Amino acid sequence: MSFTFFTPGPAQLYPTFEKHLQTFVTDQLGSISHRSQQYRDIHKFTVDQLRILLNVPASHAILFLGSASEIWERILFSCVELESYHLVNGSFSKKFYDYSNSLNKYAHLFEKPMGESFVASEVVVPEYAELICTTHNETSSGVQMPVSEIHKIKQKNPSKFIAVDMVSSAPYPELDYSLIDTAFFSVQKAFGLPAGLGVWIVSEKCLQKAEYIKNQYSIGAHNDLPTLWKNALNNETPATPNVMGIYLLGKIAEDFNKIGVQNIRKETEQKAALIYKFIEKTTGFTPFVKDKANRSQTVVVANTELVSTDIIKAVKSQGMVIGSGYGKYKLNQLRIANFPATSLEDVEKLIHVLGRI
Amino acid sequence: MSFTFFTPGPAQLYPTFEKHLQTFVTDQLGSISHRSQQYRDIHKFTVDQLRILLNVPASHAILFLGSASEIWERILFSCVELESYHLVNGSFSKKFYDYSNSLNKYAHLFEKPMGESFVASEVVVPEYAELICTTHNETSSGVQMPVSEIHKIKQKNPSKFIAVDMVSSAPYPELDYSLIDTAFFSVQKAFGLPAGLGVWIVSEKCLQKAEYIKNQYSIGAHNDLPTLWKNALNNETPATPNVMGIYLLGKIAEDFNKIGVQNIRKETEQKAALIYKFIEKTTGFTPFVKDKANRSQTVVVANTELVSTDIIKAVKSQGMVIGSGYGKYKLNQLRIANFPATSLEDVEKLIHVLGRI
Question: Is B89 in contact with B134 (CB distance < 8 Å)?
Fold first, then answer.
C-alpha cells in the first residue's frame, strides 16, 4: 500500500524526487569527487536556485551542513561571544536555548506556553545579548510568528544579530535579508526530500563576528563559519558533503522556481485555509493555536476529542499518514503538515476521510 | 558512458546499492518518522549488522553522525580534557591534530613525512596526554599502519584512550575492541555508498570521560556523546538523521556479512597485490610507500613518470576513473582505491589499460 504523508518531517517526498534521484544514479553522481568541477557545478547550481527562491542577497552565504540542529550550534559559536536571547514557545525553540547553555553561553529566556506567539512590542532584548533567536515556525505547537514581527524586532534592535529558525516553513516565509542576519532550514520538511542535510543562510557580518570570537575563544573545529565560508567561495565544503542531498535540493528548488515561490506560498495558504476551516467547523476538532494570525501555514495542530492515535490509525487505513501531538500532547493533538509535496486534491481527500471519523 | 570508479572516496558504489535504494523508495522510507518503531527497527538492523561485521562488543556503541570529520571533533570533546597526542603522516591525520588545536586543547605531535608509518616501539606518549590519535589508513599518502602496531601502542599505554581513524579502510582492519576505545569511518569509501554519513564506534569508558568533562567544560551542544548514547539505547539519534544512509549502510553491511568479512579482506589483499605488482614491475610507475608492511590495501598510491593527470585522462577514455595525487603530489602521483565495490575483473581491466599507456 502506498501512503500520502502529512507528517511534519520526515514528510511526503516531492513528486519529482524519484525522477531526480534516477538522474543522480544514472549519472553516477554518488561517485564523483567533492573536489571536482563537476561537484562544484552542482553545488553552485543549488546555491543559485536557493538564492532565487528565497531572495538571498550576495551579502549572505548559503552553506550546507548535516542538520538544522548542527546549525543551531554553529550559529551560537559564530555570533555569540557571551550572551544570547531566546524566544521560546515550544520544544524546538527550547532546544536552541539549551544548545546555548551547553556551550556555556549566558542564554536569556523569554518563554511562553506552547500555542502562543510573540509580538515585537513585548520583546525587550537584554543589553548585552548579542543574538536574538527566533523561530518562525514551531513544529511542536503549530505556532507561526508573523515575518513582520520578526522584522520589527530587528528594526528595534539594529545592533543585535537576529537568527530565524524556518526549519519547517521555508520557502514559505518571505524574509528580508537586509534585516535578517542568519536563517536556516532542513530538507526533510517543505522541500520534500529525505533527511540528512541542513541549509544555513548567513551574512558576512556573522562571519566577521565569528572571526573576532575565534581570535579569543574556540568556536569549534568542525564546520566553523570561517572555514565553511572560505570553502563556499569555491563552491565546496570543508568535509565530504551529502552530495546526493545537495544535488536533489537544487533540483527541487529549480522545480519550485519554475512554479514560482509566490504561487507556492499562495497554494500553501489555500490548503491551510481548507484544513483550518475543517477543524474549526467539525465536532471533535479545534485549532490548538487560538490567535489566527499565529496559526502555522505549514504545520497545522488540532486538539482532538478522540484519542488522536485512534484517528491516526483510522486515517492510515485510508492510505494517509498524519502526525501525533508533540510530547505531552501526543494523545490529544494531531499535527498535519501542509508542505508543497501534498496537493490541494490530497488535502481535500484527507479532510474527507477525517470528516467521516 | 558508464564509468568504474577507482577513486578514494566518493568511490564506486557497491553493486547492490541500486537495488537497496529502490526498496528504500518503494517502501517510502524517506517519509517515515525518525521517532517511529519502523525507524528504530532500521537503526537497530544497521547497528547489529555492523556489530557482526566489525566484531564490536557490547561495551561499545555504534553511533551515526554527519561525517567522519564531525566525529574527530566529538572524540576530542569527549575524551580530551586538556591534552591529546597525534601520530601525523599525511593530510587527514594532520586535520585531526588541527581540530584539537581549534578546540583549544594542547595537542602533542609526532610527525613523519608522507609515505612513512609508525611502529609502536618509537611511540612515546607524553605523560599528560589523555588520547592517542592514530590513522589506520592515510588516504592522502596510501600508508596503512599495521593493526598490530596500533594494538601494541595501547598495550604500552593502557591508561590512555586510543582512537583509530579507519575512514578509508573499514571493514578491512581487524581491530580488537578490548584494546581500541574508539574508531570511526565514513560510508563513501569501502562501503560504496553516497557520502553524508559518519559512523562512530565508541566505548562506555569514553562516555564516562565525556560525562566527567561535561561537568567542568562545554563538550559542545550538538551530538555530544552522552546525548548520542542515551538516544542510541533506544535506537534513535538526537536530531533527524540521514535515514537513507543508515538504511543503505545496514543493507550493504548485511551483504558483506553474507560474503563474510574474512573473504572480503582476502579479496582486498589479492586485488591490492595485483596492483602493487603492476606498479613495481612497470616502467613509469613506482610505489610511493617504500616499506611493504605499510602499503595500504585499500588506497594504493603510485609515483608516475608521466604527468598523472594525463594518465587519468587516458584511463577515463577507457571508462575508468582513478584519483590524482593529494595536495603537492597532485601531478606526479596516482591514487587507486581498492574497495569491495570493484571486482578482481575490474582491477585486471584497469591494470591492462594502465599497462598500455
Answer: no
The candidate with the shortest Cα–Cα distance to B82, out of B128, B132, B134, is: B128
CB A223 within 8 A of CB A239: yes
Structure ipTM? 0.98
**B225 close to B219: Cβ distance less than 8 angstroms:** yes
At residue A199, φ and ψ (nearest 5 deg) are: -115, 125
Contact B321 A31 (CB under 8 A): yes
Residue A38 pLDDT class (50, 70, 90 cuts): very high
| Cα–Cα separations (whole angstroms), residue B213 to A260, B171, B216 | 50, 31, 5
pLDDT digits (tens, 9 = 90+) for A215-236: 999 999 999 999 999 999 999 9
Q: Which pLDDT score, from 0 to 100, does residue B1 have?
A: 85
Three-state DSSP state, B164? strand
Please, what is the angle between helix B204-214 and helix B225-232, to 10°? 130
Q: Which residue has the cell 569549534?
A: A220
Q: Is B5 on the interface with A (CB under 8 A)?
A: yes
DSSP for A192-232?
---S--EEEEEEHHHHHHHHHHHTTS---SSS-HHHHHHHH
Query: If phi over 0 gives left and psi between -120 and 50 gives alpha, with beta otherwise, what is residue B60?
Result: beta
| Residue B338 cell numbers, joined | 581498492
> How far is B340 from A255, CA to CA, in rounded Å?
37
A248, A19 Cβ separation under 8 angstroms = no
Look at B195 and A100 and tell me if their CB atoms are within 8 Å: no
Q: What residue in B sits closest to A220 (Cα-Cα)?
A: B103
Q: Does A128 lie at the interface with B, CB-CB under 8 angstroms?
A: no
Q: Which three cell numbers stand for residue B135?
A: 590513522
8 Å CB contact of B13 and A2 = no
> Cα–Cα distance between A44 and A64 in angstroms, integer?
12
A119-170 pLDDT per residue, tens: 999 999 999 999 999 999 999 999 999 999 999 999 999 999 999 999 999 9
Q: Which residues of chain B have a CB within 8 Å of the CB of A86? A: none
Q: Of B344, B347, B353, B333, whose CA–CA distance to B143 is shortest?
A: B333
Q: pLDDT digit string (tens) for B279-320?
A: 999 999 999 999 999 999 999 999 999 999 999 999 999 999
Strand, coil or helix: what is B212?
Answer: helix
Three-state DSSP class for residue A6? strand
Asked if the bond preceding A10 is cis, omega within 30° of 0, the reply is yes
Question: String of b and e for B311-331 (b: at least 16 CB within 10 Å)?
Answer: bbeebeeeebbbbbbbeebee
Tell me if the bond preceding A126 is cis, omega within 30° of 0.
Answer: no
The answer for A 251-280 residues in CB contact with B (under 8 A) is: none
Pair B172, B268: CB distance under 8 Å: yes
Please give the domain boundaries of chain B with CATH numbers for all domains. Answer: 4-12+261-355 (3.90.1150.10), 17-258 (3.40.640.10)
Which among B138, B108, B132 is positioned nearest to B120, based on CA atoms? B132
- Cβ count within 10 A of residue B90: 24
